[in-house]
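Render this sequence as a predicted structure.
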Amino acid sequence: MSGTQFDVVGIGNAIVDVLARTDDHFLAQNRLSKGAMTIIDAQTAEELYGKMGPGVEVSGGSAANTIASIATLGGRGAFIGKVMDDQMGQVFRHDIRAVGVAFDTLSMVNGAPTARSLIFVSEDAERTMQTYLGACIELGPDDVDPQIIKSSHITYLEGYLWDPQQAKEAFIKAAKVAQQAGRQVSLSLSDPFCVDRHRGEFIDLVNSHVDILFANEEEIKSLYQVDSFDAALQHVKGHCEIAALTRSSKGSIIISGDNIHILDAEKVEKVVDTTGAGDAYAAGFLFGYTQGKDLGACGELGGILAAEIISHYGARPDTDLKELVKQTLG
């Protein structure tokens, strides 16, 4: 986009993901809420880590995954998130910079270690996340560089980060700076349990600051406390410029004013792991949007990236995204 240094700057949790396969018996035995993201303390994180089977450690975090995929597609991405100056923090910083994302948030030198999310992937590909936020909760308004926000076409906010008070203040600061600079603000609702905790504040955020909203079916129904997806559609209509709503195997629906785009899900031979599907969808959509694509094409790009992510283990792409998009769209 003209006049911008970055297409999208993401603000979110800087997390190292630890993924391991599991079964429903393990989840029940450890009283884990299947399919949800639950915040845990350091002791619980240590205990669960000890019980996990063989795991794979990769840099993650919802918004970070989205920005990394945008950069992999050839977009210009930046990320704002907090890590400790420890081994995991250094790994996170190296990984996200290696894919071309600008990440200059200062590391902490004292306090909690870099965050990690223990991700238990069930046989049905559902992911259950137990997240120790660690250094993430220290992100505050001072970490938001106004110049980066002003020079980014879109500021993308991760709903998961809404729990700590100073992170909320960072979000509001970023949203106001973006609006005053004539830029756009995007929000991912992240998780239905996250929505349950902050429903009123999220509705205020959407009504006052958000131009582009991302949510899955359960999240948008939870936001407006309705039983049907159609009812949720009616509620969200007109509250933000664009709502991109994903429905798993049913594809996605994009609403903008009176225009509605209904897109089928991309075909996937086998669903292996749903971790990061929403992050990937947002990446494809926002990449297309900042490249001037129409909303239908943006949704199609989102679907292509989401299908790639769920076809393998882990929340980062396993294939060349540029080539994948080229092959799929022609």
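Summary. The chain has one domain: 6-12+61-111+137-329. The chain has a mean pLDDT of 90.
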